Amino acid sequence: MELAIPHIDFDRDRTAPNYQLAPESFYRLLAHIVLEDCYAANGSEILRWLSDDDVDVPAPSTLHQYAQKFDVDEHADRFFDATCALLERHGLFPAEPVHLGFDITKVSWYGSVDTDEDGDPTDEEARIKSQLKDNTTWFWPLAVLSITAPDRNYVLGFKPAPAADKYDEVLDDMLEAVTDRFDLELGRIYLDSGLGNTKTIDICEKHGLNWLSQGKMNGKREELAKTLPPATPGGQKTSNSDQTPVRSTSSPVPSTRRLLR
Questions:
Q1: Four-residue CA torsion sign, 145, 134, 40, 53
Q2: In angstroms, rounded to a whole number, what is the distance separating the alpha carbons of residues 244 and 239?
Q3: What CA–CA distance (Å, rounded) separates 215 from 222?
Q4: How many CB atoms lie within 10 A of CB 238?
Q5: CA distances (Å), origin 121, targets 116, 129, 130
Q6: How would you classify residue 163: left for phi > 0, otherwise alpha for psi between -120 and 50, otherwise beta?
Q7: Would you list the domain boundaries of the chain?
Q8: Is residue 143 a contact partner of residue 166, using CB atoms and an 8 Å limit?
Q9: Cis bond leading into 97, ω under 30°?
Q10: pLDDT, tens digit, for every residue of 114-168?
Q11: The whole model's pTM is what?
């Protein structure tokens, strides 16, 4: 926490006479909310019940007050700086080349969205941010970029992903942040099947990343498969399934490209 707090503090005046709650208390509550899959109100109540008398637990209103000082993009930047500070500790970096994973996560929560007479969100922002389903809404999907290694996975950061046609731009921004911060040899990036599209693949190749994705043999996947030697596993002449996982490299030499089963 000593390494992370300078990046994720709430910019409060610690010398103020009414300063009581340490930054750690807010993140203890947030961790409890995430682990128990609960909400601020009951999460705060349960954590207070579980904690010793000398452990401070913020009230839900206090947590909301300070969290709302920053928008989601600002929180994302702050947490990226914090996770990088933790990763920079000696011995935590995996061996190079460093492999990455990129995914989109959605978390449902109970709530309401203003709708018109047809049941649609009343403004464009709500339409982007929310998906109505069975009395629940989804907040903005978040793109998550992680380091994947045999001995550990490490979340580098997250970023709001306002719409599916913006995922490639979000990935580009996150990779730019990583390469600006670290001098790393990047290897491959694992993409969920829904992310293996031409625009996302172009971003991977822009950053010199091999990519691995499962999906139908069409579009850019099919173009790459046609450049492979006939005996390559998963290549055009050996593929008998339209769900073949595809891997490409950024090398301009077609014979070095591989598809993995």
A1: negative
A2: 7
A3: 11
A4: 15
A5: 6, 10, 8
A6: beta
A7: 1-69
A8: no
A9: yes
A10: 566 676 655 544 544 545 554 555 566 789 999 988 777 889 999 988 777 889 9
A11: 0.70
